[in-house]
Design brief:
The complex is a heterodimer. Chain A is an alpha/beta fold. Chain A folds into 5 domains: about 5-115, Glutaredoxin (3-Layer(aba) Sandwich), CATH 3.40.30; about 130-340, 3-Layer(aba) Sandwich (Rossmann fold), CATH 3.40.50; about 350-435, Ubiquitin-like (UB roll); about 440-530, NADH-ubiquinone oxidoreductase 51kDa subunit, iron-sulphur binding domain (de novo design (two linked rop proteins), Up-down Bundle); about 540-595, 2-Layer Sandwich (Alpha-Beta Plaits), CATH 3.30.70.20. In chain A, the strands form 5 sheets. Chain A has a 5-stranded mixed sheet with strand order 10-9-13-11-12. In chain A, strands 2-1-3-4 form a 4-stranded mixed sheet, covered by helices on one side. Chain A has a 4-stranded parallel sheet with strand order 7-6-5-8, with helices on both faces. In chain A, strand 9 and strand 10 (about 365-370) form a beta hairpin. Chain B has a single domain (about 5-120), classed as Glutaredoxin. Chain B has helices spanning about 5-20, 35-40, 40-55, 95-110, 120; strands spanning about 25-30, 60-65, 80-85, 90. A 4-stranded mixed sheet of chain B has the order 2-1-3-4, with helices on one face. Chain B is elongated. The N and C termini of chain B lie far apart (about 60 Å). The chains are: A alpha/beta, B alpha+beta. The complex binds flavin mononucleotide (FMN). Flavin mononucleotide binds near residues 169, 173, 321 and 322 of chain A.
Chain lengths: ~600, ~120
């Protein structure tokens, strides 16, 4: 009889910080203490608080251990699992034990989780993704059963439309409508594609769903197939996600064994099966037409729309393509009803959205919140604010296609429309935080560098336009820009937006435009004063030794990698600016604050 | 699997197991599992509670956990039952048979088994 479950995160983050070894040690230790029959070890998907991994949760108490090492396992078994004494030193401190030792506040009470509302991530970190029975135990495949035995395809589409679900992959297109377009096309063959390319740097919610709850995606794809009249599905996932691919393979195999994929599902006469296609990890392959081209076996390049995939998609057949997170919402929408879903969110954007918090933020990880939550709540209540008492400067949403949002818009309730209105976009939910130490010109340059690399080259505005933009940004960060360049850049941005073939090019100028709009004074400091206010752009920096503070200890001279510092012992030293590479090591080394960065 | 009935059967079988992770039920049964408790036989008591709660379909309602030394070692095994809005009930010198009765009468029936409580033992 099992009295306790020990959940160990098997997401990519915790796996790379050694969670498989912790799990093995836990199993050995439980066996050695004769507890193997009473306590079950479960490998789950991501809990979301990746900054604190490896993570372990002990139920039924819900005690949340963070940064667990193999050496801690024995203590957890002997004290907590055997004797009921929580190992306080490992408890995530916000969730630390109260006065009474058995009153350990659970995970759900921490600031990080309290304001979250988990719909798409509902099962991540709760069930074992490699065991279909656990998914069924949390009402998995109920929605598929209901759809196939009680509903017509038209009813499914009507329900999806009523829910107000919009695509989570970037464009925010209404899912029910997309399905309706494909359903209306009469054709011998149709396809359902799951877009699991997740190319937005920093975003990892799709990976997390695939790793933590793969069956929800399979179930939703099958429902989609029934709704539009397709019998075949493809999951296009990047090969850089090996754990996700492995769990998907296991899930597909188990679903086939149970007859939840294959012929005559639930004796309804409906057949559906799913295959995996691996992508090589090009950003443009996440764009739906490029993705389709890639599945067809060609070089992943986009093509013009229309025709839209719903009319002419994979192998020229009607195809719907949905994002992983979009799909993960669907079984619950069917189970709980469209009203339940549309009761969450804002007027135009229903339900929740997952954001991947990164950059200058205390709680790096995945958070899921209702649409309409403000950036301030996400960053400060859930994200724990900026570390080191630094000042917030901007948040970048939507990855390389998005924009930077300044402090004055922190109280904007987030949805598809409001983000667009302030010059950014929802994108796939990357959320990168910048503080006073970030240079906004450098940030724009960084994202442009990414798009230049990832531009497929098929159309000129994107291939050449983004490169010219990057050159101008490079000049500015090197102090070679002029005020005229700023206007030229803006013109070029608008040109690319209007003329690039696919949304990769059309959105590539966003980081430049939004930083020009909100942080123009920083650009001006670079071009007019030849100064980088945040002290990031190396070409504009210089290091100097303050003669009155220098004690001549020689520490900096010994550390300098290029031998740019000279002087005699106990005498003030000097930096040779022609040799200095501005690495900053001298400043880190100096104990007397004698080095000045300008 | 060809029918919804088969799906329901798996769901029902798994439900109890996964419910354990949905956090605590309204009632918490806490078994003292310090060295003294274990020496006095707390392990089988704990296991009986877990088994009985599951058998009687009370998993969503009651959660069995363990704690360290409660401080009255001569009364071990000690089991305390906490319920929102009610006084806590402390059972002493427990064994498996007593545990079964506590689950049936107190947890399920709502009537504490007074003869096993600390008040009775100290009379
Ligand atoms: C450059 C580029 C990259 C994209 N990358 C992704 C991606 O990684 N994952 C994704 O789901 N959608 C991505 N999209 C959006 C897809 O084209 C498409 O809108 C989406 O998969 C549709 O699914 P949804 O309606 O469920 O959001 C990308 C679009 C562009 C222009």
């Amino acid at each position: 009889m099992i009295r306790s479950h020990v959940l160990i995160c098997g997401g990519t983050g915790c796996t790379s910080s050694n969670s498989p070894a912790i799990r093995k040690k836990m199993e050995e230790s439980l066996a050695a203490h004769g507890l193997a029959e009473e306590i079950k070890v479960v490998q789950t998907g991501c809990f979301g608080l990746c900054a604190l991994g490896p993570i372990m949760i002990v139920y039924p108490e819900g005690v949340f251990y963070s940064r667990v090492t193999v050496d801690d396992v024995e203590e957890i078994v002997e004290n907590h699992l055997l004797k009921g004494r929580v190992v306080d030193r490992l408890v995530y401190n916000e969730a630390a034990a109260g006065e009474e030792k058995h009153e350990v506040s659970s995970l759900a009470d921490t600031g990080f989780y309290k304001t979250q509302l988990r719909v798409a991530l509902r099962n991540c970190g709760v069930i074992n993704p490699e065991n279909i029975d656990e998914y069924i135990g949390v009402d998995g495949y109920q929605a598929l059963g209901k759809v196939l035995t009680e509903m017509t395809p038209q009813e499914v589409i009507a329900l999806m439309k009523a829910s107000g679900l919009r695509g989570r992959g970037g464009a925010g297109f209404p899912t029910g409508l997309k399905w309706e377009f494909a359903a209306k096309n009469i054709c011998d063959e149709k396809y359902v594609i799951c877009n699991a390319d997740e190319g937005d740097p920093g975003a990892f919610m799709d990976r997390s769903v695939l790793e933590g709850d793969p069956h929800s995606v399979l179930e939703a794809m099958t429902i989609a197939g029934y709704a539009i009249g397709a019998h075949h599905g493809y999951i296009y996932v990047r090969a850089e996600y090996p754990i996700a691919v492995k769990r998907l393979e296991i899930a597909i195999k188990q679903a086939r064994e149970y007859g939840l994929l294959g012929k005559n599902i639930f004796d309804s006469g409906f057949d559906f099966d799913i295959d995996i296609r691996l992508g090589a990890g090009a950003f443009v392959c996440g764009e739906e037409t490029a993705l389709i081209t890639s599945i067809e076996g060609n070089r992943g390049e986009p093509r013009n729309k229309p025709p839209f995939p719903a009319n002419k998609g994979l192998f020229e057949k009607p195809t719907i393509i949905n994002n992983v997170e979009t799909l993960a919402n669907i079984p619950q929408i069917i189970n709980k009803g469209p009203e339940w879903f549309s009761s969450m969110g804002t007027e135009t954007s229903k339900g929740t959205k997952v954001f991947a918090l990164g950059g200058k933020i205390t709680n790096t990880g995945l958070v899921e919140i209702p649409m309409g939550t403000t950036l301030r709540e996400i960053l400060f209540d859930i994200g724990g604010g900026i570390p080191g008492g630094k000042q917030f400067k901007a948040a970048q949403t939507g990855g390389p296609s998005g924009g930077c949002i300044p402090a004055k818009h922190l109280d904007t309730p987030i949805d598809y429309e409001s983000l667009k209105a302030i010059g950014s976009m929802m994108g796939s939910g990357g959320l990168i935080v910048m503080d006073e130490d970030n240079c906004m010109v450098d940030v724009a340059r960084f994202f442009l560098e990414f798009t230049v690399d990832e531009s497929c080259g098929k159309c000129t505005p994107c291939r050449i336009g983004t490169r010219r933009l990057l050159e101008m940004l490079n000049n500015i960060t090197e102090g070679k820009g002029t005020l005229e360049d700023l206007d030229k850049m803006e013109d070029l941005c608008h040109y690319i937006q209007k003329n690039a073939m696919c949304a990769l090019g059309q959105t590539a100028p966003n980081p430049v435009l939004s930083t020009l709009k909100y942080f123009r004074e920083e650009y001006e400091a670079h071009v007019v004063e030849k100064r980088c206010p945040a002290g990031v752009c190396k070409k504009l920096l210089s290091y100097e030794i303050l003669a009155d503070k220098c004690r001549g200890c020689t520490a900096c001279a010994r550390k300098c990698p290029v031998g740019a510092i000279s002087g005699t012992v106990k005498q003030p030293h000097v930096i040779d600016k022609s040799k200095c590479v501005k690495c900053g090591v001298c400043m880190e080394t100096c104990k007397f604050g004698a080095i000045l960065k300008k | 699997m060809k029918s919804l009935a088969e799906l329901q059967a798996i769901r029902d079988r798994m439900k109890n197991s996964v419910a354990l992770r949905e956090g605590t039920g309204d009632i918490r049964i806490v078994v003292g599992m310090a060295t003294c408790g274990i020496a006095a036989g707390a392990r089988p008591v704990l296991n009986t509670f877990v088994e009985e709660v599951e058998k009687q379909n009370l998993v969503g309602k009651a959660t069995v956990t363990q704690t360290g030394c409660i401080g009255m070692c001569r009364f071990e095994p000690i089991v305390e039952v906490f319920e929102e809005g009610k006084d806590r009930v402390t059972y002493v010198k427990m064994d498996s048979e007593k545990a079964k009765r506590v689950v049936a009468e107190h947890i399920k029936g709502g009537r504490p088994v007074y003869e096993y409580t600390i008040g009775e033992a100290q009379k």
